[in-house]
Design goal:
alpha+beta, single chain, six-stranded mixed beta sheet, 4 helices, globular
């Protein structure tokens, strides 16, 4: 049911934003593929290590959710904007993002992330 996927994804994203990797990891399949602008990762700990030193906090405001279910998977695409605080303590908002998730058997098997953080310059603002 699509609403259950959205609820699960929101819980997962909140746990990652809060850096509660144990809870967030419980939503991932053992063979998860995490693809971010900084590279591809097989675990949240790898992803978090790569993201360390980029910003102090990050959150998402979701504008759209698109869901497609076929055979044994559900694909969910969400778009919106990022907000947070960079390493210099400067708040930012309004940075575009797009996340694509593949959910199989109730677990996230893929997460693909696109955003305009690098292009926007907000991480370097002082």
């Amino acid at each position: 049911m699509p609403n259950s996927e959205i609820g699960m994804l929101l819980t997962y994203l909140a746990a990652t934003a809060d850096r509660n990797m144990e809870t967030a990891s419980s939503y991932l399949s053992p063979d998860v593929k995490l693809v971010f602008p900084q590279g591809q990762f097989d675990s949240l700990s790898q992803m978090a290590e790569s993201m360390a030193g980029r910003y102090l906090s990050m959150g998402k405001t979701h504008d759209t959710w698109d869901i497609s279910t076929a055979e044994e998977r559900t694909v969910v695409v969400t778009t919106g904007t990022l907000h947070g605080v960079n390493l210099h303590g400067v708040a930012f908002a309004g940075v575009r993002f797009c996340d694509r998730f593949v959910v199989r058997s109730g677990l996230i098997s893929e997460q693909h992330v696109w955003n305009d953080l690098a292009e926007s310059g907000v991480l370097d603002s002082r």
